[in-house]
Amino acid sequence: MSTDLITLTAAQTAAVVADGSVSAVEVAQAHLDRIAAVDERVHAFLHVDTAGALAAAAAVDAARSSGVTLGPLAGVPLALKDVLTQKGIPTTCGSRILEGWRPPYDATVTARLKDAGVVILGKTNMDEFAMGSSTEHSAYGPTHNPWDLERIPGGSGGGSAAAVAAFEAPLAIGTDTGGSIRQPAAVTGTVGVKPTYGAVSRYGLVALASSLDQAGPCARTVLDTALLHAVIAGHDPMDSTSADVPVPDVVGAALRADVKGLRVGVVKELGGEGYQAGVRQRFDETVELLTSLGAEVVEVSCPHFPYALGAYYLILPSEASSNLAKFDGVRFGLRVGEDDGNPSIEQVMGRTRAAGFGPETIRRIMLGTYALSAGYYDAYYGSAQKVRTLIQRDFAAAFDQVDVLISPTTPTTAFKLGEKLDDPLAMYLNDVATIPANLAGTPGMSLPIGLATEDGLPVGLQIMAPAMADDRLYNVGAAVEAALLDRWGHPILEEAPAL
Amino acid sequence: MADTPSITRDDVAHLARLARIDLPPESLDHYAEQLGVILGAVAQVSEVATADVPPTSHPLPLVNVFREDVVRPSLTNSEALSGAPSVESERFRVPRILDEE
């Protein structure tokens, strides 16, 4: 029974809980058992809240017994990225500097999940403060890709994607600043969505780069991501950058799954050279598939996208160097070296930050400090902001011609742990296709489109839409997913080796 | 177009001081090399960032988001202090902030 429960989709789980054939407590226990069985090898979780999960599940069962109509995800377990606060539960952001911190408040995303009866199983591993593409920059050790435990699960949200891929949870929350939801989804054979900037509240999301960060859903199916998107999205007065507009009907779009007559643009600059042959092959097949489903596929040029990576690695470090200044050993987290002599507060800050931050965080803080410093500001940060304008113009011109844009999500499949750890630039290139959407604030999805022939590892398709048109991602994604499921006869994760 | 300046270990030491990160001296050369490589790659933005292009700092054109100035529930004093490394008299306790002399 419990094996069956962990393979259900979120939609199926909610249905069996709602009709009373299975209790939410049984569902939660089945996933806790799965975590106990496999997470020593996968290491998707930094903290498992067994008592809290079972109590939340029991509350759903009690509500059902008393005749309350349950919401569409009530009783469904979820893994929460450790960058979002959950009251009383350790929140580390993958960093030593926050080890042991228990936040005194819920993020808006967390509060909405609780209100919806979603059962939060625990907090997932991530690159420190969400900086990385492999989870190797976590202070608590990397997460392993369930497809091959020697390989990276993507990052920064590798823990969330791996939890979903390893059937430890049907749903997870990620955050995406430059691809941290979509890239892990691509390399683990799961679905991940970065909503339009401002669609999901950032209140309680520990900020990396405030003009780029966006939380979003991770799951094994497009419909499940849509159901989760609908729960977490919507205006929040606690976030001044939250968009006060209606949430598009993402669930309806996922159920529609019809691309007839839809105009699809293949981004000329995101493909070809630098992309693994097996990735290109699956992508080309998907283009043919979309055509066979009735979409009009054309090539579209976004001439400034090759400059997006450079702009991103100036804007992100600049914003991060400011946001991470709050980790100073005064109000929360680590404090180091207080008793060594009679140090000043500045000396203690310096010791605390050197001990508490890992090398990638230190690199980016110094990069940002440099880009913002007098004499270099115009050449670096100022130029990057201009490129941001050019990227937005590229998107606007493209969406005059087509309804959605597509590309491979990542240039390669999952690489080996350790392969790029000390080569920052090689690591950064993993995000080359996902970054433009963050700079423009537009939404993007990754979903699995097959396994690369040369290594048998998952390949992701990225779909991009105009701002506030997130529903188009779900419509196109669900259409591709249904056609591929028809072709394969089973979900792609059934091809992953048993853990 | 910006020339890519080479980053020296003194530059790294200066940046680390500005960022309040007490880096061990033996790490400075390695960071200098890596930062130089990264800056060399990102400097290409200046190729297209011409004077006629306005800068964009944020994806949403938001200005002055206000709310009503009303009292709402917030953290209690003890909740706000609950994560502090050191507390005294219901305040954050910090190391000395002035020079010794």
Keywords:
A: alpha/beta; 12% strand; B: mainly alpha; Histone, subunit A; two-stranded antiparallel ribbon; 3 helices; flat
Structural commentary:
- The complex is a heterodimer of chains A (499) and B (101).
- Chain A has 17 helices and eleven strands.
- Chain A is an alpha/beta fold.
- Chain A has a domain of 297 residues: Amidase signature (AS) enzymes.
- The model of chain A has no long low-confidence stretch (mean pLDDT 97).
- Chain B has a domain of 53 residues: Histone, subunit A (Orthogonal Bundle), CATH 1.10.20.
- In chain B, a hairpin with a 2-residue loop joins strand 1 and strand 2.
- In chain B, 20% of the residues are buried.
- The model of chain B has no long low-confidence stretch (mean pLDDT 90).
- Chains A and B meet through helix 11, helix 12, helix 13, helix 14 and helix 15 of A and helix 1 and helix 2 of B.
N- and C-termini, Cα separation of chain A: 18 Å
Which residues of chain A sit in consecutive blocks of at least 5 with pLDDT less than 50? none
The greatest interface between two protein chains, and residues involved on each side, is:
A-B, 72 and 57 residues
Average the pLDDT over all residues of chain B and give the rounded result.
90
Summed up:
Chain A is α/β, with parallel strands linked by helices and about 500 residues long. Chain A is about 40% helix and about 10% strand. The longest helix of chain A has 24 residues, at about 380-400.
List the helices and strands and how they pair.
The complex is a heterodimer of chains A (499) and B (101).
Chain A: H1 2-7, H2 10-18, H3 24-42, E1 45-48, H4 50-65, E2 77-81, H5 108-115, E3 119-124, H6 158-165, E4 171-175, H7 182-188, E5 191-194, E6 215-219, H8 222-232, H9 250-256, E7 263-267, H10 277-292, E8 296-300, H11 308-323, H12 345-356, H13 359-371, H14 378-401, E9 404-408, H15 424-428, H16 435-440, E10 444-451, E11 458-464, H17 470-488
Parallel strand pairs in A: 2-3, 2-4, 7-8, 7-9
Antiparallel strand pairs in A: 1-3, 4-6, 5-6, 5-10, 9-11, 10-11
Helix pairs in contact in A: 3-4, 8-9, 9-17, 11-13, 11-14
Chain B: H1 9-18, H2 28-42, H3 77-81, E1 87-88, E2 91-92
Antiparallel strand pairs in B: 1-2
Helix pairs in contact in B: 1-2
